[in-house]
Predict the 3D structure of the following.
Amino acid sequence: MTKADLIEEVSKLSSLTKMRGFGSFRIRHRNSRKGRNPKTGDSVSVPEKRVPFFKVGKRLRELVNT
């Protein structure tokens, strides 16, 4: 499975997917909000969206930190 395949699969998720020892993927919902254009200072509307979230598993965290 390539990174692109993995990203595509995660984007189809509606809940949690766990990979034992590696981590877990889930989709988080971000509500719409008011933002600010940093260049002009104008107020802009940021639409709601779904974003991928990854939580590192214990085994992967241990491997990285040794």
The beta strands are 16-19, 23-30, 33-36, 43-46, 49-56.
